[in-house]
Amino acid sequence: MSTVLERPLAKPVPEPAAGRASRTGIVDCDVHPTVKSFAELRPYLSDRWWRHLNTYGLRPRHGFAQMDPYPKAAPRACRRDAWTPAGDRPGSDLAFMREHYLDACGIEAAILNPLAVTGQGDQNLRFSAAMASAVNDWQLDVWTRRDERLRASIVVPYDDGAMASDEIERCAGNPHFRQVQVLSRTSEPLGKRRYWPIFEAACRHDLPVGVHVFGYSGFPVSAAGWPSFYIEEMTGHSTTCQTLVASLVLEGVFEQFPTLKVVLIEGGFGWLPALAWRLDRQVERARDEVPHLTRRPSEYIREHIWITTQPMEEPERREHVLDTMAWIGFDRLLYATDYPHWDFDDPAQALPRALPPERLEMIRRGNARKLYRLD
Q1: pTM above 0.90, yes or no
Q2: Which CATH number covers residue 38?
Q3: Do 249 and 301 form a contact (C-beta atoms < 8 A)?
């Protein structure tokens, strides 16, 4: 039985006029490019690190490092129709991406978030830094300089704050880069001081810090060991995001960096109001433990955190998702498709139809244009 995930985007099923109109002017805040092979990175790696990559490969700080920890819902966790006619990996060919996704979905701008072959979380931090630099230069040459709709994220070796800051300094003056990219499963909670150089550099250049789910911390997403199923890992992204938000707030990151903007990518958002309520309540009872906080946790969250819409919770009562959006703030929601992954959100169908036009416009492109300075 065919599913919406397998329907080619370039030839969508007939839609009503409202649906067709929703396929224009989209700013997509989560698109995943990848390399066809390691060879694409050769021009950007020194001889030393090219030998290291070919000799030792990627060595992430994670169990099951030589394979996916869990079977995916589709090959490489991607849409089955996103493989190119030549058999290249989804997200690896710009011409195919234009036809299959950018043009078909009316994408005005897209933020690239590389995940595969970035070196982030590698056990060798110097190699991680070399790979991050290579991937950043590759993004420019292969993607953003060839299509003006695309913007890059500065991939950084996030577990070394100093080297990550150096990479931000190297890239930040280039207008093709519009955010700093880290992953949600860092070696320590993200608010710890080892990560503060990243936040300092991001603020200095007025760049949001995009925190995408996944990562190689060396710890399972569960608090009690490795889960049995892929679905457990996927639902665990929300708890990972809760942990890092609590860390950022309670460690005083937003006090230290009052202009910091954090984008949570692909972790859902239904959990955020409840987390804020609980943090507010606990801080009331344990104020002496966090005297450096001058405001309620919910105030920091509402001011400093943005959320992408994919994946979106689907409660039985549809108005509940609108209530959640309202609490977070309609100005803090950013549209995302997660292309080319299997749980891709089609712009014509993903957002609640009950949203009024002005709020749809904010989520589809207005908020992202302002945050990423796309005007």
Answers
A1: yes
A2: 3.20.20.140
A3: yes
